[in-house]
Amino acid sequence: MNPEDVKALLVTELAGCDVSVDGDGRHFDIRIVGDLFKGLRAVQRQQRVYAVLQSQIADGTIHAVNMKIFTPDEL
Q1: What is the C-alpha separation between 16 and 59, in angstroms, rounded?
Q2: CA atoms of 32 and 68, how far apart (whole Å)
Q3: What is the pLDDT along the chain (75 residues), one digit of tens a residue?
Q4: How many domains does the chain have?
Q5: Helix or strand run (H / E) with residue 31
Q6: C-alpha torsion angle, residues 57, 52, 3, 64 (rounded to 10)
Q7: Cα end-to-end span (Å), the chain
Q8: Residue 38 belongs to domain with CATH number
Q9: Residue 70: CB partners within 8 Å, gap ≥ 6?
C-alpha cells in the first residue's frame, strides 16, 4: 500500500480534514488537521483514525502508523 492509498482512505472517511501521509509501504507517518477532532482527547483522535485503517492493520498491509492529529486552532 502506498501513501496515496492511505491518504485516499483517510480523506474519504474523515471528510473536511487536511491529510498528509508519508511512508515506505508498511510504515506510515500521518498528519491530519480538522475540526472533526475538536473536544477530543489524543486517544479519541487516534481511535478515529485507527477505525479507518482497521482492516489494513489487521491483515498486515499496514504494519505501523505514527500520527499527528490537530484541530486548526492548535496550529
Answers
A1: 28
A2: 6
A3: 999 999 999 999 999 999 999 999 999 999 999 999 999 999 999 999 999 999 999 999 999 999 999 999 999
A4: 1
A5: strand 27-33
A6: -30
A7: 29
A8: 3.30.300.90
A9: 31, 32, 33, 37
Exposed, middle or buried: residue 73 (CB in 10 Å: 0-12, 13-18, 19+)?
Answer: exposed
Block residue for cell numbers 487516534: 46
Whether this prediction's pTM lies above 0.70 is answered by: yes
User: Which ranges in the chain belong to alpha helices (H)?
Assistant: 3-13, 42-58
Domain that holds residue 28: 3-74
Phi, psi of 3 (to 5 degrees): -55, -35
Cell output for 12: 474519504
Question: Are residues 54 and 19 in contact, defined by beta-carbon separation less than 8 angstroms?
Answer: no
